[in-house]
Amino acid sequence: MKELKNSSSESAQQFRNLQTQLREHWRASEEFDSDDCDIIIIPSLSLDQQEMQKVEGAYHYEERHLFSLIRLRNPRTRLIYITSQPLHPMIVDYYLQLLPGIPFSHARDRLLLFCAYDASSKSLTQKILDRPRLMERIRQAVRPTKSYMVCYNSTALERELSVKLGIPLWGSDPDLHYWGTKSGSRQIFKECGVAYPDGSELVWNAEDLAEAAADLWERQPHLQRIVIKLNEGFSGEGNAILNLKPIASKAPPERVKAIGDSFHNLRFQSTGETWENFSSRIPELGAIAEAFIEGEEKRSPSVQGRIVPSGEVEILSTHDQILGGPDNQIFLGCEFPADESYRLELQELGWKVGKNLADKGALERFGVDVVAVRQDDGTWDIQAIEINLRKGGTTHPFMALKLLTNGRYDRTTGLFYSQQGRPKYYVASDNLKKQRYRGLLPNDLMDIIADNQLHFDSGTETGSVFHLMGCLSEFGKLGLTSIGNSPQEAEEMYNKVVKAIDRETAY
After folding, report:
1. pLDDT at site 205
2. For 251, which DSSP code?
3. Closest by alpha carbon to 267, among 239, 246, 300?
4. What's the burial of 145, exposed, middle or buried (CB within 10 Å: 0-12/13-18/19+)?
5. Short-list 140, 146, 131, 133, CA closest to 112
6. I want to staple 65 with a disulfide (CB 3.0 to 4.6 A). Which of 43, 52, 184, 278 is the partner?
7. pLDDT classification of 26: cutoffs 50, 70, 90
8. CA geometry: angle at 503 spanning 501 and 507, to 5°?
9. Cα-flanking dihedrals φ and ψ of residue 157, to 5°?
10. Which stretches of 392-451 are assigned E, i.e. beta strand?
11. Average pLDDT over residues 438-467
12. Is pTM, for the whole model, over 0.85?
């Protein structure tokens, strides 16, 4: 046991040493984005695998990071992209042909594709670790002193892979994982002086959860609903709503039991979830009770940023999230940018959180989800809900915008301007999903795009770009980002795609 602990400690130190090299090599953001380097993309969703099963076609989400091919517009960059299953060649060609100003053949020569040939539910990082020969081929393909890894999120698995490859990970140390959980987020909001809903401490069983919810109700007697959250849930799939109205007549001493009994009637946001399964996860993942924010006009914006190796915090974007599910808790898509009436306030909130994370040693992407409720005087009450210490559903659409327009984000306005100086807007989704789309192959989608002129037009800098194409045939599920010169035009572009695919699948 002592030897195992020493080995783990030694591995953690090796990981920190590699990250020190990363910080020393790229001191400025500009250098980091344009230097001569080999980038290893490991789009592994190293999240709780039981929770991942709630996401249909989850392993195809590895394709969302194909927008990382944006890096190949730097003619000195080489990209190594690893997946669980082979990528359809047409999908790879689709992204390479979008690169501005770079010959297709030049970019293709600098792209290396590796595959684990494993469709199991294990995370991609685990699949790579299980294949020493694959790791050796990756190691031989890169320049060790000019390489770094990029992942969806950072866990002990990514740390182990980084150490075994001898390549630094541009991502947070897994020891900082707590700050991306529901309870960790609440602690950071408190430290930053950011407003957030009243809620409970982290609990590990249903009995303590009932007591925590009763205490919250006692503090906030006006509450109509309480959100029960698995501490490590994501995309709203680990949330459930407790309706207090049926037990509102219960006196405070009776409320703990009444709430415990009501857990069987929770309104789960994930289709097919049950209390039996949900409660079994509490001892593993932990849970919190949080006040459900009511409001006649309520929105769910978010702000995204990154922490570069120098420790500098950059605000990248703001979005209004498109949510679905029984109580609008499930992430479906987003609109860029967030409403102008609160986007600058979101930026300030994001910078405070980012600075706190940077001081704790975090790296790379982070996002903060908030709830905005319009007040009687027209202002918005902004309350932070959670931190995503990883890439998220807004990462790849924004990367697509940068890829296609080679523009810049302006913090003074919260707008993104293309190289031609035009502000750009988009509507994006990972969940354009219909039963009738099942059976469409990537080739079929390309035909539909060509026949209906749905492609992105580099002249007008408007149109749609697609992702999750590998998910289409089996699950009837597709992702797209529709870019316009106004919010209305972006929405029209999105609707044009939906109408065209509906028409083409009318049979």
Report:
1. 97
2. -
3. 239
4. exposed
5. 140
6. 43
7. low
8. 105
9. -65, -45
10. 408-410, 415-417, 423-433
11. 93
12. yes
